[in-house]
Every structure is written in structure tokens, then in C-alpha cells.
Amino acid sequence: MLLLESFGPNPRKVRMYLAEKGLKIPNKELDILGGENRKAPYTDKNPGGQIPALELDDGKVIAETVAIFEYLDEKNPSPALIGSNAEERADTRQWQRRVEQRITENMYNGFRFAEGIELFKNRMRCLPEASPGLKATAIDGLQWLDKLIAGREYIVPNRFTIADIILYCAMDFAASVGQGIPADCKNLKAWFDRVGARPSAKASLHAASAQLKMQG
Ligand SMILES: N[C@@H](CCC(=O)N[C@@H](CS)C(=O)NCC(=O)O)C(=O)O
Of 17, 30, 51, which is best to mutate to test ligand 1, by the most ligand atoms within 8 angstroms of its C-beta? Predict the structure, then answer.
């Protein structure tokens, strides 16, 4: 297996997942700033043109972080970061979708269409006028989640899961590009500090983060 990766919050999610599982997979670094991921031969492997991707020994390529998590969790069931039974897995998946749809995708596009536009304008359709609304939508999602996790250690009650990894990596990145945690989100701030104290949070941060002044 080979993990195709780079600096960035999405590849970081997989690095954090692997650290939590105690798994090691050989990796190949791509030049994300130079756009190596947007052209062949990478796009022959992952037509989505985004990083990360996992190349299996038979040449099959799995892209999309959640698909990579699902694959690795099935192959390496312990510790379960999605769930140990159908009910647990369903619970994690519902929170994962809520987190991505209400919060993280809006944060990422809010960034791509504003602070990140020079990098993204020739890679995808950018809607600069949508950025303020997307950032505000992400804040709505954070405030919604903040109330729901009162008294909880993690997003899914009583279990650390991929929902925590997905949100943590996005929020850490977002805070470094001007989308900090809203002051009224006290539960999320405590959750963010709790997840950030896990060894996997530090271990997953790419060495280029300090120089780029972005957490990825
Ligand atoms: N939905 C994808 C998103 C991956 C993604 O956005 N990757 C970013 C790095 S954080 C990327 O490739 N950015 C460069 C680009 O889009 O050209 C996933 O979950 O894997």
C-alpha cells in the first residue's frame, strides 16, 4: 500500500487516523502547491484531483478520506474509529455527515474562494461572492454542534471517532486562516483542546505547516 499525500488538512486526517490506529503505511509526497495533484499521472489514479489517495498493492486507488477510513477500519478493526457494530457505525456516519455538510465543507470553500483564491482559481470554479456566506454557514454549524455536545467528551457520545478527526483537522486549519472558534462555543473549545492534546494531533501535523503558517 502507498499513501499519496501532502501538506493539508485532508491528508492530515489520514495521518491522524493512522497515528490513532498505530498503523504505518509507506507514503509518497505530492507537490500540492505546485498542482501535481491536478494533472496526470495523479489524475489517472484519482480523477477527483485531490489529496489524499491510497494506492493498494494491486494498483486499485481509493480516494476520499472517508472511503479510506472505511477501508482501513474494515481491514484493521481495532481500535474501531467508526464503530464495532452496525449501530455504532451508523451513529458515527450520521455525525460524520453532519460535521462535513454543516461545517467543514463550508469552511474549506469559504477559504478556497477568498484567502486561497490564487491557489484555487485555476483548479475549480471559485465563487468569491459566496465566501462570506459559507463562513457564516460554518459558524451556524459550529454553534449548533456546540449545544449538542454539552457534557460529551467526543462528538459521538463516549467514543473517539473519525467525526472528531474530521472536525479537528478542519477547525485547526480554519483557525490558521482566519476562521477561529466562535467565542460563544465553549463546549467546542473544550473539545478542541481535548482532541488537540491527543498525541495523534501533533504527530499528524505536516512539517511544512510552520513555514506556510497554516495548520495542515
Ligand atoms: N473530499 C476530499 C477532499 C480532499 C481535499 O480537499 N484535499 C485538498 C488538500 S487538504 C486538496 O487536494 N487541495 C488541492 C487541490 O484541490 O488542488 C477528501 O475527503 O479526501
Answer: 51
Cβ atoms of 83 and 161 within 8 Å: the answer is yes
Strands 27-29 and 61-63: unpaired
Largest distance between two CA atoms of the chain: 49
* pLDDT tens by residue, the chain, 216 residues: 999 999 999 999 999 999 999 999 999 999 999 999 999 999 999 999 999 999 999 999 999 999 999 999 999 999 999 999 999 999 999 999 999 999 999 999 999 999 999 999 999 999 999 999 999 999 999 999 999 999 999 999 999 999 999 999 999 999 999 999 999 999 999 999 999 999 999 999 999 999 999 999
Helix (H, G, I), strand (E, B) or coil at 16: helix
Distinct helix (H) and strand (E) counts, the chain: 11, 4
Beta bridge partners of 54: 3, 62
> CA triplet 196, 71, 19: central angle to 5 degrees?
30
Q: Which residues line ligand 1 (CB under 6 A)?
A: 8-10, 32, 37-38, 49-51, 64-65, 123
Q: How many C-alpha atoms does 43 have within 13 Å on its Cβ side? A: 11
